[in-house]
Amino acid sequence: MAEADPSIFAQMKPVEVREAADFAALSALLDEASAPFVVRGLVNDWPLVAAGRDSPRAARSYLLDKAHPVPFEVTIGQPGRDGRLFYEDDFAMNFRQARGKLADIFRGFDDNEGRADAPAIYLTSVDMKLFFDGLADENPSPVRGRDPRESIWIGTDTRVAAHNDFPRNLACCAVGRRRFTVFPPEQFRNLYIGPLENTPAGRAVSLVDFHDPDLAAFPRFAEALAHARIAELEPGDAIYIPSMWWHHVEGLEVFNVLVNYWWRDTPGFLGQPQDALNHAIWALRDLPQEERAFWRQLFDHYVFENPPEVAEHIPEPARGILAPLTAETASRIRTFLLRTLNR
Q1: Strand pairing partners for 238?
Q2: Is 1 within the bounds of a domain?
Q3: What whole-number distance in Å separates Cα of residue 248 and Cα of residue 230?
C-alpha cells in the first residue's frame, strides 16, 4: 500500500490511552466514556493474537481449523487501487463481491502475498458464532455482559473511508496493525459525506481521500483535521468508539484481523435512526419551506423535546405510542409503517 502523506497524520492528536486491568475495569471505563479511548494489550491472551504473532499463515490456519464448511462473502478490490475500497468516478464501486469456502479465499491471500499489484481482499463483519466453531469461546468477548454482536474482519492492507455507526463499538486488533482516525459526530459537515443510499458497505462515507486530501475540492476538511484523533493498534490492543463517532480504518500489514463488538444501550425493539432520516428526506425535505417549518416544530415537540404536555392531557391507557415505548407498542409502529409503505 502506498504511504499516506505523513504530515496529515502528524498534526493529529492521539486517542487517549486508558488502563483496564481486567474486563470489569473496562466496563467501568465504557460506562463513563464520551470519547474514544485505547486500551493496550487488552486481548493479549487470545490464541488468535498468539497465532498472528507467529505468522499470517499461522493465523489463517488457526481460523481455518474453526471455520464451518459454508460459503463466506468476500470483497475483492481491483489491483493497483492502494487498498482503498471506494467509489469509481461514476460512483459505482471499485470492488466486487464473491462467495467461496474460507480455504479457497485464504488460498488467494497466500497466492497474492508479496505481489505489488495484489488486489484488496476483505471479509467484512463475519458473525463469529455463525461461521466458526468455538472461535468466540477461545477468544472471549471483553464486553460479554452487554449482549454485543461479535464480528470478525479479515483482510489485506485495506482502507475503509470514514463512516460512523449507530451502535457503540469496541474493536480489538488481533492480527497485523490498524490505524484509526476518529472525528466527533458533529464533524459530518466537514467530512463531505457521500450518498446515503449508494454506499460501499451500508453506511454513508466521507469522500475525502485521507492519503491525498484535496483541500481545494474539500476545503472544510481542514477544520475536520483540527478535531481528528489518531490511534495505531498493535496485536492485542483495542479501541472504543462511541456511537456516531466517525472513523477511518486502515489495515497496515499484508494480513490483518480485527474483532469488533457492537452494542446499543437502548432496547433492541427500537427502530434504526437512519431509517427515520431516510423517511424524512422522502416525506419532508422537498415540501414548501413554511410546511417544513411546521413539521420541524412537530418533530421538536414529539421527538426531540417530548415535554410532559405532549401526553399528560390524555388518559394513560389511551396514550398509545405517546407513552414510553414497549416491545408491543414498538411492534405496532413497525406494523403500521410497513402497511402504509406498501400501499
Answers
A1: 39, 172
A2: no
A3: 9
State whether 307 and 225 are in the same domain: no
Domain annotation covers residue 287: yes
Domain carrying residue 335: 273-341
Residues belonging to the chain? 343
Q: Are 231 and 188 in contact (CB under 8 A)?
A: no
CA dist 228 and 304 (Å) reads 28
Residue at a domain's end among 201, 229, 263: 263
What pairs with residue 215 in β-bridges? none
Strand pairing report for 246-251 and 159-163: antiparallel
Count of other CB atoms within 10 angstroms of residue 47 = 14
Answer yes or no: do 302 and 228 share one domain.
no
User: Tell me: the pLDDT tens digits for 96-129?
Assistant: 999 999 999 999 999 988 888 899 999 999 999 9
Contact (Cβ atoms closer than 8 angstroms) between residue 172 and residue 43: yes
Which of 242, 263, 284 finishes a domain? Answer: 263
Please state the domain count of the chain: 2
Phi-psi region at 244: left, alpha or beta (left = phi > 0; alpha = psi -120 to 50): left
Shortest CA distance to 78 belongs to which of 158, 193, 176?
A: 158
Q: Is 268 inside a domain boundary? A: no
| 21-27: Cβ within 8 A, 24+ apart | 23/142, 23/143, 23/144, 26/142, 26/143, 27/143, 27/145, 27/146
pLDDT tens for residues 232-283?
999 999 999 999 999 999 999 999 999 999 999 999 999 999 999 999 999 9
